[in-house]
Structure formats: structure tokens, C-alpha cells
Amino acid sequence: MSLAAPFFAWLVTLAAVPIAIHLWGKPKAQVQRFAAMEFLVASDRQVAPRRRVRELLLMLLRALAIALVALTVAKPFFATTRPLLLGTSGAPESAVVVIDDSLSMNYRIGTSTLFERAQRRALELLESLPEPSEVALAFTSDAARDLPLTTDRARLLQTIRAARASHRVGDTGAAIARAAALLSDAPHAERHIYLLSDLAQHGFAGSKIPSLEAAHAQLVPIDLAGGLHTNRAVTDLRIATVPELGEGAAQISATLQNFSDTSVSDLEVTLRIDGKAVAKGLATLTPHTPIEKRFVHRFDPSASHTVEVELPADALPVDDRRLARIAYRRPIEVLLVSGDPRTIRREDELFFLETALDPEFHVTVENGLERLKDSVQGRDVIFLVNLPAPDAAAGNLLQQFVSGGGGLFLAVGDRTDCDAWNAVLGDLLPQPLATLRTVGMVASARRDGETRISGNGERIDRFDFRHPLLSPFAGAAGEALRQTRVGRFALLRPTPHAHSGTLLRLESGAPLLVEGQQGKGRVLLLTTTVDRDWSDLAIQPGYLPLMQQAVRYLTRTTLAPPTSAVLVGQPQLLLIEESDRVVEVTAPTGTVHPLASPHRFARTDEPGLYRVAAARTGALQDRPKAWFVVNPDPVESDLSPLTASALRSQPHATGGTPLVRQVELAPGLGALLLLVLLAEAMLSNRVGQRLVRKVGQSSR
Amino acid sequence: MNSLLHPAEIAKLGDLSLRARAIVDGALAGLHRSPRSGASVDFAEHKIYSPGDEVRHIDWKAYGKFDKYYIKRFEEETELTAYLVVDASASMDYAGSAAAGGRSKLQYAVELAAALGYLLAQQRDRVGLVAFNEAVRAFLPARARRGHLRELCQQLDALRAEGCTDLARALGRVSEVTRQRSLVMLFSDLLNGSEDAIRLLRQLRVRHDVVLFHLLDHDEIELPFEGALQFEGMEEAGVLQVDVASVRPAYRRRVAEFLADCRRRAGEGDVEYQLVNTAYAATDVLLQFLHRRERR
Q1: What would the mean pLDDT of B175-191 be, rounded to a whole number?
Q2: Is B191 within 8 Å of A41 when comparing Cβ atoms?
Q3: Which of A296 and B237 is assigned the larger pLDDT?
């Protein structure tokens, strides 16, 4: 408490006067001789205790009255960072109410959540602002929900009442920046940004709070949580297959965290598979220390499953469970056919390729095409590497294989006869081979008599990142391929085929990886070797993912490797057939979302299991393999509040505008003074006696 | 003397007579009946003679008629012996603002006693005086001779209120000097040392007819003062500063209890009790007393 007129504060000492009078002051009374002293003394002895209490009360009331008068004159006020429900000055103002609608605002205290508290405070604030104040709304988790400055109270009230807490991560700094931008050209000189939030640290981890000096605005943070930050959560869930335990066995690892300051013992942890509890365990959570809880479960390998690890519900139940999907598939069968086998394995043409693909895929190696007819059965992808000219029978077999939906990967080498390939493989080749070109050092130069070595080779220069095969190399990941040096490669002839495309090109513009299509199948042609003979691609970091992506692309299966569940707000690629044209996604709450763009779903607003149904035409069919789960961002689970010093260190505190508001106490003290005086009058009975006397006189 | 007995007051009492309630043993005949049969002019009854009776009282005419000895009995008219016992302690000096004529309790008592003495003297009764505080301050034997009333009034007029109260000593003196059945009238406020006054009066009532005039000032009954006052005791050195309003209810309750207790105990002992508020005129008090005596 502070005083606006501290000069008058010394008057409080006058409160000692009644006390001194009570203790030492004996008023000079008139002397009265009296005979019946025995009755007087006895009566006084009888009433003395009661009188002493009454006199003490009177003394206190009088001292209090004097103190209250002195305090009222000194104009006391209370400095607070909490806003008054009335405007600071009572004048119209331009205000932005920033409502934290992030996941943590679902925290429940008593019968209401923090967000519901925020709504109530926002409504009260709105009611208290004088006309014609204009108010805007900003939400921390979704800028799309913001409402610009308006004087339309009905619209503001409706928007606040209709708002719901999201399950997304909030960015308080960004919301305040938007609020400051709104206020920068606001009409009123009085400008405030009211932040209704739990003031958790994670809310300020994103964007920094901008300086509000330019907007001439004052930030008024309102803590709705009151320092409460007790929470526990499942912050991660991972599933790893355990082949040694048999088919379908997997280890489920859940990370549990206790964000409170006290330990929790024997906390029940439940594992649910497809909604049914299959295992339970106990865990002891120490404060702020993640622990891992593991389960092993044997799944039905023929189906997809939803895995859920759950804790007993606390005040923030949304993060007390975490989900994952697991789908077993038949292993992809890959046949590697080498035209240049070696007895020393590391010198073999297939050494690097086999290493990259096994054990991710089921790989079979053949030398030459002699047993191709038998080997092609049951294969998904065939790699033909450094083969001389295949015979016509092999060519036909490959034609049938690709037309039937198989994938064919062709890689040239020293033994490749370009003309024979063109003749036998014909339309299977995305582009006909022209000739070989050497632009740098190659390992086979000394063996085949090639002596002309021109330069250091060529780097990969152009990527088609929009292509599903190369999409994992977008951005910085592209460096894993960009350092590749190619010393020799096959030049291709131009082709009129509309179904072919170049995915990788060298610096000279020559194609390095070309795609083609035949019937239902796909063909990829690499114009250099898959080992280190003509390039160092095989020892580049990008070699393994490139080859594995090539296998998945050729087999038309999942292009991306299985990933963990997406977080709320992140888009999800749907694992459905390309031919599916009608797709619907059913959210955990039962809301059905028809998809215009069938492969990407962005409305992942709720945590839980999303069910996908699709069809080429006609009735929709469930696609369990495409079902996916969405989890909350664990960042929101840590409710540790922003410290006062941290809040002060934010730029708004240096903007020259004070953060505190003054609550005038004089009116309240005045009312209290009146009550004290009334009590004093009643206790001394003077007023009462006068009233009785007046009533008696008037009745006569 | 003249200051005590105003002619107007005496005139008011002129038609009233004071009659003793009980038969008082006395020597003079008068308005009061004697409990003893003897030399009297009014025949009362006959009784059968028994040995020891005065032979001269045998009614010979009755013997002639009935052939039996009858003794004639007479109602003797005797004179009354009365003692006025006046409390002259310091507490009797209190004179409240509401007291009739601004008189103190002692002055009031003296006036009342003189009026009663005058009436008794008019009836040729014998009147005595005992004035006391912690000692007997004045004593006048009961007599009926001419001039005795003047002497009584002079003694009363000379009384000053001072000292403490010792009622036992005063009543002891009364017992010593009265061999006959007498009327004892006590004028006192019964304050300060008079706790056992009623008990002493009840003991006295065994042989005498006792009347208690309990004199209290209006202030002592109602405590009508306002504000803070420093009260000083009149017989004891006690001093008490008090806000009167705070103690008034309790004080009134105590006084009321005290008066009720006095009245009850006096009634139980057949002591006639008369509360006298000095705010009222002495004449009214006297009339009230005489009316009550007359009804008995």
C-alpha cells in the first residue's frame, strides 16, 4: 500500500490520544456526598467488568476512527498488476484482450477450467470498460480467431462466449505483437493489452514480446492460475518391433513426466490396445524428471492397431494419455541381379546396394539373368545392375513384370551394352541409352584401358523435390546427395515418351536418375553405377535413404518411413491408394471431414484417433492402415509459471509505461469510518438516549 | 418549636387520633385500652370468683340474684408510653434536590417525630425521646406532664447529624428505661451499620409495639444524577468515581431488593413498616400512618 499524500500520514499517531486518555486520563468529576454508598459500591462492582470491556471497545473504536480519518486524508492506494474491473482512468480506451486458448488452459481448478475463468474475466472486463471504448480480441493459439478493434459489444460478447480452449501450443508473444499492431493506430490515447493467461513459461518460449512503446500501450498480465502448476503427463510414446520375441512382438516405451514439486508414488499406468486395457503397471514419478515405462506386447501382424498409454486423470487430463498406431505389412521382396559378381564381397557390384536395403526389405541376390524366370515370382522390385545385354526372353519377362505392377531399377556399369539394352528393353527404358561419358576419375579406368580423364567429375545439381521419391531430401537434407561426385555416366537420348521424367541431373544437365512407367509398374534408370566404380554416391549419407525410397516408390507402398504420431495442428499425409478419390476423415469427437485434397489432412485440432475411409467411387470403406493418431504437444504439459522477474524483463517493462495500477482505498476507508462512528455512538448510547428522549417528547 | 410544628399541619391532624394497635400497659387512662383489668369506671364483664381475686370487686347484687360470687371486671383507660427513637448519624444529613422543603432526612425525621409527639401529648400520653448515632446523643424519659412537649421539641431541634450508626445501643437504652409495654417509633434510614436493625426491632417487638419509619431521600431510591460524579460516603471515608448512567440500573435493583427485604422481614416480625420518601410532605406521611393505625 502506498500513499498519495504521505504528508498527512503522521496524523495516524493521533490515534494514540484516546489510548492515552483511556490509560491515564481521569476526568475531573463533580464531588457528590452520598449516604447510600454501600449500594453504589456494590453496583459498581457488579457492572465494572462489563464497563471496562465497553470502555476498551470505545477506546479502540475512537482510536480506529482517528486513524481512518488520517489514512483517508493521506489518500492510500494499492498497487497491483491485476487490472481493475473498471478502466484505469474511467476514460474510454482502446484495448485488446489477449486470451490464452492454448492446451494448458484446459487445466481445471475446482469446477471450471482456466479458459472458462479467462472467459469470465474477459466478459467482466468488457462490461466495465466505459463507452465508447473499442476492444479487440486476440488468441494465442490461432490468429484466425482474432477479432479486430470494434465497439460492437454484442459481437465481442458473442465471440468470447463462443470461444473454446484449443489443444494447440500457444504463442503469447505473437498474440501480443498482433495486439500491439492493432493498437498502433487506435483512436484512444488510453491503450491496454489485457493478457488473460496462466502465464506459463511455455507460452513465452516462442515469439518474444515486442516493445509496446511504439503502440503507446500498456500490458496488463492477469494470472488466472495463481501459481498452480501441478501436472503429470505422458510426453512420448515409441514402438519398436522385437523380432527375437516372435512375429508381432513389439516394445512400447512411454515417457512419463511429473511437472509438480512433489513426488508421486505408485501411479497406475495403463496400456490399451485398440481401446482395451491389456496391461497395467506402477510408476513413481519424481519431480521434473522424465522416466520411461516399458511394455512388451505381441500384436496381430495382420492388422493395424492403436496403442495408448494412459495415466489417471488429473487437472489437465488431455495430456494424461498418448497414442500411437502400429501397422504390420508384408515385407517387400527385392531381387538384386548383378552383372559383375565378385568373390570378394566388398568388391561386388551389389555390396553397397545390398547393405542399404537389407534388412529393411527382404533382399534376394542373383548373378545374371539365367534364373530370372524363377526368381521373378513374388518379387516387388527387381534391381538390374551392370548387366550386359539381356536376351529377348528376359526382356519379355521384365516387360510382363513391370506391366503387372512390379518395379524395375536399372543401373549401368562397365558391362552395360547400351545398344543391346535399347534393343531388348525398348519401352521399359525411360530414355534410350546413348553413350558413356567419363568426366572424372573412375575405379575401372585402369582395367578397361580408358585413359582419358577429364576433370574432377560432376556434382548433382538439380533435384525435383516435389517428387515423392525425393521429398525427404528437401531443404538441408539435400546436402546428403549434393556432395556426390560422378566420374562416368551414360548419356541418354531424347525421347518423346510423355510418361518419363528426370529426377536428378548433373551439373552439365545430363540426367542421373530418370523415371518411367510401363503399364502398372514403374521403372527407374540410374545412369551411373550403384557402387563406387563410377561415382562416390554409394558412400554419401543420402545413398541409403535414396535407395530405400526408390524401393518404396517402385512398389507403390508407403513412400515415407513410419513416423511417430503427428502433434495437434500438424498436417498428416494419408496412406491411401492414389486411385482413391473420395476420402473422409472422422475426428475423435465424431466430426466427419470430407477431403478435397485426399492425401493431406490439416484439421488435426484434437488429440486422439482419426479414422479414414476412402473409395475410388461409390460407398466409402474403412482404411485402417491409413488411420492415424494425433497427440498434444508435450510442451504445454509443463505449467511452470513465468517468474515475476522474467515478466519484468520482457520488453514491455522497459517501454516507459508502468505495469501497475492503483486501487484507491479512500472510498472504502470512508465507509469503514462511518461504520466505526456508528458503532461508537451506539456503544456510548448517546444517540440512543437522545432518540428515546425525542420520541418521548413528541409522543406527549 | 415553632419551626417544627407548623399550625397548618397541626390543624390537619387535629381531627385524627392516634390509637395504639395493641393494649399498652400504662398508668394513665386515655384513648388506649389497657391489657390489665383494674381500677376503671367502665364495666367490662363478670367472671366467677376464684381464690386470690380481690374481694372488693365481688358483685354482691349478682350474688343476690344468682347465689354465686361474681367478680366485676372493668376496662381501664390507660395512658400510652411512647418513645421516639431518632437516628442522628451522619447519613441522615443527606438532603436531595427533590426533598420536600430541601430538608435533610434528619430534619424530616425530627419534624415527623415532633408531630407525633405533639399528638401523643394532646392525648395525655407519655412521650420519650432517644436520639443516637454510635452513642445515645439525647435521652428524654417518657412523661406526660405539661411542658414536656416543649422540652422534647427543644431536644429534637438541637440534633445534628454526625457520626456512625449504632442502633443496638439506642434500642438497648429503650429497653432499659421502659418497664411497661410501650410504643417504640424508630426514625432511621437503616444505612451504614444498620444491617441487623430489623432483627433488633423484632426482638424489641416481644415486649413493645414497634413502628419503623424508614426514611430515604428520593436520590437514594432513584439515583437520578447524570454524568460522571465522584461520590463520597457520609459515614465512611469511601470515595467512588463513576459514570452514573452505567450503574443506575444495578443500583435501583439493589435498593429495591433492600426495601423489599426490609418490608418482608418487618412484616414477619410484626413490626409496622412505613417507608418514607422525603420528597413527600411529612403531613401526608403522618396521615397515611394514622389512617393505617386507625384501621387496626
Answers
A1: 87
A2: no
A3: A296
A202, pLDDT greater than 60: yes
CB–CB of A33 and B258 under 8 A? Answer: no
Q: Is the Cβ of A27 closer than 8 Å to some Cβ of chain B?
A: yes
Task: Output the pLDDT for position B74.
Answer: 60
- Which residues in chain B have Cβ-Cβ distances shorter than 8 Å to A22? none
Instruction: Note the pLDDT tens digit of each residue in A357-369.
Output: 987 888 999 888 8
Q: Name the band, by pLDDT with cuts 50, 70 and 90, for residue A529.
A: very high
Percent share of chain B, pLDDT over 70: 79
Looking at the partner chain, which of B217, B228, B242 has a beta carbon nearest the beta carbon of A44?
Answer: B242
Q: How far is B239 from chain A (nearest CA, A)?
A: 9
> Predicted confidence band at A556 (pLDDT cuts at 50, 70, 90)?
low
**Per CB distance under 8 Å, which residues of B are interface residues toward A?**
90-94, 105, 189, 191-192, 216-217, 219-220, 223, 225, 227-236, 238, 240-243, 245-247, 250-251, 253-255, 258
Give B146→chain A minimum CA distance, Å.
38
> CB burial class (10 A; 0-12, 13-18, 19+) of residue A97?
buried
Say whether B246 and A51 touch across the interface (CB within 8 A). Answer: yes
Give, in words, the CATH class of A333-555.
alpha beta
> Where do the domains of chain B lie, and which CATH numbers do they carry?
7-20+80-295 (3.40.50.410), 32-78 (no CATH)
Could you report the predicted ipTM of this complex, rounded to two decimals?
0.76
Confidence (pLDDT) at B170: 85
**CATH topology (fold) of A232-329:** Immunoglobulin-like (2.60.40)
What was the pLDDT predicted at B18?
A: 32
Q: Is residue B13 over pLDDT 60?
A: no
Work out the angle at residue A696's Cα, subtended by the Cα atoms of residues A691 and A698, and round it to the nearest 5 degrees.
95
When CB atoms are compared, the residue of A29, A33, A37 closest to B228 is: A29
Average pLDDT, chain A: 83
Query: Does pLDDT of A407 surpass 90?
Result: yes
Between chains, do A39 and B225 touch, taking CB under 8 Å as contact? no
- pLDDT at residue B35 greater than cutoff 80: no
- A291 touches B at CB < 8 Å: no
Tell me which CATH code domain A94-229+640-659 carries.
3.40.50.410
> DSSP letters along chain B, please?
-TTTS-HHHHHHHTT-----SS----SS-SSEEEEEEEEEEEEEEEEE--TTS-GGGB-HHHHHHHSS-EEEEEEEEE--EEEEEEE-SGGGG---TTSGGG--HHHHHHHHHHHHHHHHHHTT-EEEEEEESSSEEEEEEEE-STTHHHHHHHHHHT----S---HHHHHHHHHHH--S--EEEEEE---SS-TTHHHHHHHHTTTSEEEEEEEE-HHHHH----SEEEEEESSS--EEEEEHHHHHHHHHHHHHHHHHHHHHHHHHTT-EEEEEETTS-HHHHHHHHHHHHHH-
Residue A583 predicted with pLDDT over 60: yes
Interface test with B, best of A38, A45, A686, A690 (most B CBs within 10 A): A38
CATH of segment(s) A566-631:
2.60.40
